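Cross-posting from the chemistry board since nobody answered there.

I work mostly on the small-molecule side, so proteins are not my area. We synthesized MRU and want a rough idea of how it might sit in this target. Sequence and SMILES are below. Is it possible to get a predicted 3D structure of the two together?
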Amino acid sequence: MTLQAIKYQNGDLEILDQLLLPHNSKYISIKSVNDGWNAIKTMQVRGAPAIAIVGCLSLCVELKPQSFQSKTALREEIEAKLNYLITSRPTAVNMKLAAEDLITLAIKLETNNSININDMKEKFISAIEKMLEKDIADNQAIGDHGAKDILRGFPEDSKLRMLTHCNTGSLATAGYGTALGVIRSLHAANKLENVYFTETRPYNQGARLTAYELIHDKIPHTLVGDSMVAALMNTKSISAVVVGADRVAINGDTANKIGTYQIAVTANHHKVPFYIAAPFTSIDKKIPDGTHIVIEERPATEMTHIGNLQLAASGVNCWNPAFDVTPASLITGIITERGVFRPEELQNVVDS
Ligand SMILES: CSC[C@@H](O)[C@@H](O)C(=O)COP(=O)(O)O
Protein backbone atom coordinates (compact mmCIF):
# COMPACT_ATOMS: atom_id res chain seq x y z
CA MET A 1 0.00 0.00 0.00
CA THR A 2 1.36 3.48 -0.92
CA LEU A 3 1.41 6.35 1.54
CA GLN A 4 -1.76 8.33 2.19
CA ALA A 5 -0.83 11.99 2.58
CA ILE A 6 -4.40 13.30 2.35
CA LYS A 7 -7.15 11.71 4.48
CA TYR A 8 -10.68 12.90 3.86
CA GLN A 9 -13.96 11.51 5.06
CA ASN A 10 -17.30 13.22 5.14
CA GLY A 11 -16.08 16.73 5.93
CA ASP A 12 -13.02 15.74 7.98
CA LEU A 13 -9.68 16.54 6.37
CA GLU A 14 -6.25 15.57 7.64
CA ILE A 15 -2.90 15.92 5.90
CA LEU A 16 0.50 14.50 6.65
CA ASP A 17 2.59 17.51 7.73
CA GLN A 18 5.41 17.47 5.17
CA LEU A 19 7.48 19.97 7.13
CA LEU A 20 8.03 17.31 9.78
CA LEU A 21 8.97 14.49 7.39
CA PRO A 22 10.93 12.26 7.30
CA HIS A 23 11.53 12.19 11.07
CA ASN A 24 8.00 12.68 12.30
CA SER A 25 4.87 11.32 10.53
CA LYS A 26 2.15 13.50 11.99
CA TYR A 27 -1.28 14.24 10.53
CA ILE A 28 -2.77 17.70 11.09
CA SER A 29 -6.43 18.71 10.79
CA ILE A 30 -7.52 21.23 8.19
CA LYS A 31 -10.68 22.83 9.53
CA SER A 32 -11.15 25.83 7.23
CA VAL A 33 -10.11 27.49 3.97
CA ASN A 34 -7.67 29.58 6.01
CA ASP A 35 -6.04 26.41 7.36
CA GLY A 36 -5.86 25.07 3.77
CA TRP A 37 -4.28 28.29 2.47
CA ASN A 38 -1.69 28.30 5.28
CA ALA A 39 -0.82 24.62 4.83
CA ILE A 40 -0.18 25.27 1.12
CA LYS A 41 1.77 28.51 1.65
CA THR A 42 4.03 27.03 4.35
CA MET A 43 4.42 23.80 2.31
CA GLN A 44 2.91 21.47 4.91
CA VAL A 45 1.34 20.17 1.71
CA ARG A 46 3.09 20.71 -1.62
CA GLY A 47 3.20 19.30 -5.13
CA ALA A 48 0.86 20.72 -7.79
CA PRO A 49 -1.97 18.12 -7.67
CA ALA A 50 -1.94 17.87 -3.85
CA ILE A 51 -2.11 21.67 -3.51
CA ALA A 52 -5.31 21.74 -5.61
CA ILE A 53 -6.91 18.79 -3.84
CA VAL A 54 -6.20 20.05 -0.32
CA GLY A 55 -7.23 23.61 -1.26
CA CYS A 56 -10.57 22.45 -2.69
CA LEU A 57 -11.23 19.95 0.13
CA SER A 58 -10.62 22.73 2.67
CA LEU A 59 -13.56 24.50 1.04
CA CYS A 60 -15.72 21.36 1.47
CA VAL A 61 -14.79 21.24 5.16
CA GLU A 62 -15.86 24.86 5.57
CA LEU A 63 -19.10 24.61 3.54
CA LYS A 64 -20.41 21.35 5.07
CA PRO A 65 -21.71 22.67 8.41
CA GLN A 66 -22.87 26.05 7.04
CA SER A 67 -26.32 27.07 5.84
CA PHE A 68 -26.87 29.83 3.34
CA GLN A 69 -29.74 32.27 2.82
CA SER A 70 -29.78 31.80 -0.95
CA LYS A 71 -28.07 30.02 -3.82
CA THR A 72 -26.48 33.33 -4.77
CA ALA A 73 -24.99 33.73 -1.30
CA LEU A 74 -23.54 30.20 -1.56
CA ARG A 75 -22.11 30.88 -5.02
CA GLU A 76 -20.56 34.17 -3.83
CA GLU A 77 -18.94 32.41 -0.86
CA ILE A 78 -17.56 29.67 -3.13
CA GLU A 79 -16.17 32.17 -5.61
CA ALA A 80 -14.51 34.34 -2.95
CA LYS A 81 -12.92 31.39 -1.16
CA LEU A 82 -11.61 29.77 -4.36
CA ASN A 83 -10.14 33.05 -5.56
CA TYR A 84 -8.41 33.37 -2.19
CA LEU A 85 -6.99 29.83 -2.38
CA ILE A 86 -5.41 30.60 -5.78
CA THR A 87 -3.26 33.28 -4.14
CA SER A 88 -1.45 30.73 -1.94
CA ARG A 89 1.22 29.74 -4.50
CA PRO A 90 1.44 31.18 -8.02
CA THR A 91 3.31 28.70 -10.25
CA ALA A 92 1.38 25.41 -10.11
CA VAL A 93 -1.71 25.80 -12.29
CA ASN A 94 -3.82 22.95 -10.86
CA MET A 95 -5.47 25.02 -8.09
CA LYS A 96 -6.33 27.79 -10.56
CA LEU A 97 -7.86 25.41 -13.12
CA ALA A 98 -9.82 23.57 -10.41
CA ALA A 99 -11.13 26.92 -9.12
CA GLU A 100 -12.23 27.98 -12.61
CA ASP A 101 -14.07 24.68 -13.18
CA LEU A 102 -15.71 24.82 -9.74
CA ILE A 103 -16.84 28.42 -10.16
CA THR A 104 -18.40 27.46 -13.53
CA LEU A 105 -20.15 24.56 -11.79
CA ALA A 106 -21.41 26.83 -8.98
CA ILE A 107 -22.85 29.29 -11.52
CA LYS A 108 -24.57 26.42 -13.40
CA LEU A 109 -26.11 25.09 -10.18
CA GLU A 110 -27.16 28.58 -9.11
CA THR A 111 -28.98 29.29 -12.38
CA ASN A 112 -30.63 25.86 -12.65
CA ASN A 113 -34.11 26.45 -11.22
CA SER A 114 -34.82 22.75 -10.73
CA ILE A 115 -32.10 22.54 -8.06
CA ASN A 116 -32.73 23.82 -4.52
CA ILE A 117 -30.08 25.25 -2.21
CA ASN A 118 -29.41 21.98 -0.35
CA ASP A 119 -28.96 20.05 -3.60
CA MET A 120 -26.67 22.79 -4.88
CA LYS A 121 -24.42 22.48 -1.83
CA GLU A 122 -24.42 18.70 -1.96
CA LYS A 123 -23.66 18.49 -5.68
CA PHE A 124 -20.88 21.05 -5.33
CA ILE A 125 -19.26 19.23 -2.42
CA SER A 126 -19.52 15.88 -4.15
CA ALA A 127 -17.76 17.31 -7.27
CA ILE A 128 -14.77 18.19 -5.06
CA GLU A 129 -14.83 14.86 -3.22
CA LYS A 130 -14.48 13.06 -6.58
CA MET A 131 -11.13 14.82 -7.22
CA LEU A 132 -9.35 12.41 -4.85
CA GLU A 133 -10.40 9.25 -6.71
CA LYS A 134 -9.86 10.83 -10.14
CA ASP A 135 -6.32 11.92 -9.27
CA ILE A 136 -5.32 8.41 -8.14
CA ALA A 137 -6.82 6.82 -11.29
CA ASP A 138 -5.09 9.44 -13.50
CA ASN A 139 -1.76 8.80 -11.79
CA GLN A 140 -2.02 5.05 -12.30
CA ALA A 141 -2.75 5.65 -15.99
CA ILE A 142 0.23 8.07 -16.20
CA GLY A 143 2.45 5.41 -14.58
CA ASP A 144 1.42 2.71 -17.01
CA HIS A 145 1.57 4.87 -20.18
CA GLY A 146 4.96 6.24 -19.12
CA ALA A 147 6.48 2.85 -18.29
CA LYS A 148 5.33 1.43 -21.65
CA ASP A 149 6.60 4.38 -23.69
CA ILE A 150 10.00 4.51 -22.01
CA LEU A 151 10.50 0.74 -22.29
CA ARG A 152 9.81 0.86 -26.05
CA GLY A 153 13.30 2.34 -26.57
CA PHE A 154 15.06 -0.65 -24.91
CA PRO A 155 15.50 -4.39 -25.62
CA GLU A 156 12.79 -6.56 -24.02
CA ASP A 157 14.92 -8.00 -21.20
CA SER A 158 16.22 -4.56 -20.09
CA LYS A 159 16.03 -3.21 -16.58
CA LEU A 160 16.19 0.57 -16.44
CA ARG A 161 18.25 3.05 -14.47
CA MET A 162 16.02 6.07 -14.03
CA LEU A 163 16.65 9.57 -12.68
CA THR A 164 14.02 11.80 -11.07
CA HIS A 165 13.96 15.16 -9.29
CA CYS A 166 11.93 16.69 -6.44
CA ASN A 167 8.97 14.71 -5.03
CA THR A 168 6.14 13.70 -7.34
CA GLY A 169 4.79 10.70 -5.44
CA SER A 170 1.97 9.97 -3.02
CA LEU A 171 3.01 13.01 -0.99
CA ALA A 172 2.53 15.35 -3.96
CA THR A 173 -0.75 13.89 -5.22
CA ALA A 174 -3.79 12.00 -3.93
CA GLY A 175 -1.73 8.80 -4.22
CA TYR A 176 0.69 6.80 -6.45
CA GLY A 177 2.23 9.91 -8.04
CA THR A 178 3.09 11.22 -11.51
CA ALA A 179 6.82 10.87 -12.29
CA LEU A 180 7.20 8.66 -9.22
CA GLY A 181 4.12 6.80 -10.47
CA VAL A 182 6.06 5.96 -13.66
CA ILE A 183 8.91 4.68 -11.44
CA ARG A 184 6.37 2.66 -9.40
CA SER A 185 4.92 1.14 -12.58
CA LEU A 186 8.39 0.19 -13.88
CA HIS A 187 9.19 -1.39 -10.53
CA ALA A 188 5.86 -3.28 -10.46
CA ALA A 189 6.62 -4.64 -13.95
CA ASN A 190 10.06 -5.77 -12.69
CA LYS A 191 11.71 -3.41 -15.18
CA LEU A 192 13.48 -1.08 -12.77
CA GLU A 193 17.10 -1.73 -11.86
CA ASN A 194 17.45 1.45 -9.81
CA VAL A 195 16.08 4.97 -9.46
CA TYR A 196 18.54 7.75 -8.81
CA PHE A 197 16.98 10.84 -7.32
CA THR A 198 18.32 14.28 -6.44
CA GLU A 199 18.35 15.91 -3.03
CA THR A 200 16.48 18.84 -4.64
CA ARG A 201 18.07 21.77 -2.86
CA PRO A 202 17.21 24.06 -1.28
CA TYR A 203 14.06 22.50 0.17
CA ASN A 204 15.23 18.89 -0.11
CA GLN A 205 12.00 17.36 -1.39
CA GLY A 206 14.15 14.53 -2.78
CA ALA A 207 16.27 13.77 0.28
CA ARG A 208 13.35 14.14 2.71
CA LEU A 209 10.20 13.10 0.83
CA THR A 210 11.10 10.96 -2.19
CA ALA A 211 13.56 9.04 -0.01
CA TYR A 212 10.76 8.46 2.54
CA GLU A 213 8.45 7.10 -0.18
CA LEU A 214 11.05 4.89 -1.88
CA ILE A 215 12.11 3.36 1.44
CA HIS A 216 8.45 2.84 2.41
CA ASP A 217 7.74 1.06 -0.91
CA LYS A 218 11.08 -0.86 -0.96
CA ILE A 219 12.01 0.47 -4.42
CA PRO A 220 15.74 0.18 -5.26
CA HIS A 221 17.19 3.69 -5.11
CA THR A 222 20.23 5.96 -4.75
CA LEU A 223 20.25 9.55 -3.53
CA VAL A 224 22.54 11.99 -5.38
CA GLY A 225 23.34 15.67 -4.86
CA ASP A 226 21.90 18.11 -7.43
CA SER A 227 25.45 18.92 -8.54
CA MET A 228 26.17 15.26 -9.37
CA VAL A 229 23.75 14.87 -12.29
CA ALA A 230 26.26 15.42 -15.12
CA ALA A 231 28.74 13.01 -13.51
CA LEU A 232 25.91 10.50 -12.96
CA MET A 233 24.92 10.59 -16.62
CA ASN A 234 28.53 10.33 -17.70
CA THR A 235 29.26 7.25 -15.62
CA LYS A 236 26.09 5.33 -14.74
CA SER A 237 24.36 4.95 -18.10
CA ILE A 238 21.03 6.47 -17.10
CA SER A 239 18.18 5.08 -19.27
CA ALA A 240 15.78 8.04 -18.96
CA VAL A 241 14.82 11.00 -16.79
CA VAL A 242 11.23 11.49 -15.61
CA VAL A 243 10.08 14.52 -13.63
CA GLY A 244 6.78 16.18 -12.78
CA ALA A 245 5.30 19.55 -13.73
CA ASP A 246 3.74 22.55 -12.06
CA ARG A 247 2.50 24.09 -15.29
CA VAL A 248 2.82 23.00 -18.91
CA ALA A 249 2.30 25.69 -21.57
CA ILE A 250 0.50 24.73 -24.76
CA ASN A 251 3.80 24.54 -26.72
CA GLY A 252 5.16 22.06 -24.14
CA ASP A 253 7.45 24.44 -22.19
CA THR A 254 7.24 23.14 -18.62
CA ALA A 255 7.68 24.78 -15.23
CA ASN A 256 8.88 22.37 -12.56
CA LYS A 257 11.03 22.38 -9.43
CA ILE A 258 14.16 24.52 -9.68
CA GLY A 259 16.98 22.42 -11.12
CA THR A 260 14.79 20.61 -13.66
CA TYR A 261 16.07 22.78 -16.52
CA GLN A 262 19.72 22.00 -15.84
CA ILE A 263 18.90 18.27 -15.70
CA ALA A 264 17.15 18.57 -19.10
CA VAL A 265 20.17 20.36 -20.60
CA THR A 266 22.47 17.66 -19.20
CA ALA A 267 20.19 14.86 -20.47
CA ASN A 268 20.20 16.44 -23.93
CA HIS A 269 24.02 16.58 -23.92
CA HIS A 270 24.19 12.87 -22.97
CA LYS A 271 21.32 11.85 -25.33
CA VAL A 272 19.24 10.58 -22.41
CA PRO A 273 15.45 10.75 -23.03
CA PHE A 274 13.82 13.40 -20.83
CA TYR A 275 10.13 12.98 -19.91
CA ILE A 276 7.58 15.14 -18.10
CA ALA A 277 4.81 13.22 -16.29
CA ALA A 278 1.73 15.31 -15.50
CA PRO A 279 -2.05 15.09 -15.49
CA PHE A 280 -4.12 17.27 -17.84
CA THR A 281 -4.88 19.41 -14.78
CA SER A 282 -1.29 20.71 -15.07
CA ILE A 283 -1.70 21.91 -18.68
CA ASP A 284 -2.45 25.61 -19.04
CA LYS A 285 -3.99 25.91 -22.49
CA LYS A 286 -4.32 29.68 -22.04
CA ILE A 287 -0.59 30.33 -22.28
CA PRO A 288 1.30 29.89 -25.56
CA ASP A 289 4.72 29.31 -23.99
CA GLY A 290 6.74 29.25 -20.78
CA THR A 291 7.53 32.98 -20.73
CA HIS A 292 4.00 33.52 -19.36
CA ILE A 293 4.59 31.40 -16.26
CA VAL A 294 5.03 33.31 -12.99
CA ILE A 295 7.90 31.81 -11.01
CA GLU A 296 7.42 31.85 -7.25
CA GLU A 297 10.33 33.16 -5.19
CA ARG A 298 10.59 31.65 -1.71
CA PRO A 299 12.12 33.15 1.46
CA ALA A 300 15.92 33.28 1.71
CA THR A 301 15.76 31.31 4.96
CA GLU A 302 14.84 28.20 2.95
CA MET A 303 18.34 28.46 1.42
CA THR A 304 20.29 29.65 4.41
CA HIS A 305 18.75 27.18 6.88
CA ILE A 306 17.69 23.56 7.08
CA GLY A 307 14.95 23.58 9.67
CA ASN A 308 16.41 25.66 12.50
CA LEU A 309 20.01 24.95 11.55
CA GLN A 310 21.77 27.85 9.80
CA LEU A 311 24.14 26.76 7.00
CA ALA A 312 24.98 30.01 5.20
CA ALA A 313 26.88 32.96 6.61
CA SER A 314 24.66 35.51 8.36
CA GLY A 315 23.80 38.49 6.16
CA VAL A 316 24.34 36.69 2.83
CA ASN A 317 22.20 37.85 -0.14
CA CYS A 318 20.11 35.09 -1.78
CA TRP A 319 18.01 34.43 -4.88
CA ASN A 320 15.56 31.57 -4.32
CA PRO A 321 13.27 30.85 -7.29
CA ALA A 322 11.22 27.72 -6.50
CA PHE A 323 10.80 26.65 -10.14
CA ASP A 324 12.38 26.96 -13.57
CA VAL A 325 11.06 26.48 -17.09
CA THR A 326 12.39 23.70 -19.33
CA PRO A 327 11.96 24.54 -23.01
CA ALA A 328 9.86 22.10 -25.06
CA SER A 329 12.84 21.44 -27.36
CA LEU A 330 14.53 19.50 -24.51
CA ILE A 331 11.46 17.33 -23.76
CA THR A 332 11.16 13.87 -25.33
CA GLY A 333 7.57 13.27 -24.26
CA ILE A 334 4.81 14.48 -21.97
CA ILE A 335 3.25 11.54 -20.15
CA THR A 336 -0.42 12.11 -19.30
CA GLU A 337 -3.39 9.97 -18.26
CA ARG A 338 -4.48 9.99 -21.93
CA GLY A 339 -1.15 8.80 -23.34
CA VAL A 340 2.31 10.14 -24.12
CA PHE A 341 2.63 13.13 -26.46
CA ARG A 342 5.45 15.02 -28.10
CA PRO A 343 5.36 18.69 -27.01
CA GLU A 344 4.28 19.77 -30.53
CA GLU A 345 1.26 17.42 -30.34
CA LEU A 346 -0.14 19.04 -27.20
CA GLN A 347 -2.22 21.74 -28.88
CA ASN A 348 -4.12 19.19 -31.01
CA VAL A 349 -4.64 16.84 -28.07
CA VAL A 350 -6.06 19.62 -25.90
CA ASP A 351 -8.35 20.78 -28.73
CA SER A 352 -9.68 17.26 -29.45
C1 LIG B 1 3.25 15.68 -8.89
S1 LIG B 1 4.06 17.00 -8.22
C2 LIG B 1 4.69 17.95 -9.59
C3 LIG B 1 5.38 19.19 -9.18
O1 LIG B 1 4.51 19.95 -8.38
C4 LIG B 1 6.69 18.88 -8.43
O2 LIG B 1 7.60 18.34 -9.34
C5 LIG B 1 7.23 20.15 -7.84
O3 LIG B 1 7.88 20.93 -8.49
C6 LIG B 1 6.82 20.45 -6.45
O4 LIG B 1 7.27 21.68 -5.98
P1 LIG B 1 6.93 22.12 -4.48
O5 LIG B 1 7.61 23.45 -4.33
O6 LIG B 1 7.49 21.07 -3.59
O7 LIG B 1 5.42 22.24 -4.40
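Reply from a structural biologist on the board:
Welcome over. Reading the output above for you: Residues 141-351 form a domain with the Rossmann fold fold (CATH 3.40.50.10470). Residues 46-49, 92, 166, 168, 172-173, 178, 205, 244-246, 256-257, 322 surround MRU (CB under 6 Å). Happy to explain the C-alpha coordinate format if needed.
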